UniProtKB/TrEMBL annotation:
InterPro entries (UniProt xref): ABATE_dom_sf (IPR023286)
Protein name: Uncharacterized protein
Superkingdom as given in the UniProt entry: Bacteria
Record lineage: Bacteria, Bacillati, Actinomycetota, Acidimicrobiia, Acidimicrobiales
Region Disordered, annotated ranges: 1-20
Species in which this protein is naturally found: Ferrimicrobium acidiphilum DSM 19497
Amino acid sequence: MSVSRPEQTQEPLRNVTKPSLSKICEGPGCDQILDEQPRGRPARYCSAACRVAAHRRRKRGPVIVEVHFGSASTRNRREDRSWMVKLRRDNDELIVVIGQTRDGAQRLASRLNDFLN
Ligand SMILES: [Zn+2]
């Protein structure tokens, strides 16, 4: 049985499209590849909707890290493990962890603060 080896091509590859720097839409969560503009300012967004969404995003407030004691979700936990850490921005909040000790929650909150700001 002969082992065939891939032939080495010395010739430069032809018909390969030159890699061009294609930008991706800057709209939040959008992954549209933007067509290259023949002239003028390069496009940043694929659509008016993405331009508006990006503008709203820039106007959001800062992320605030909060430590809370107790909640419905920690009802059956030991008292010393009833702390939670939340992130808040404007009217949105995200619970990062529940069931922590006070020290644990504080350490995490402090680390998140360092990381975010
Ligand atoms: Zn877009």
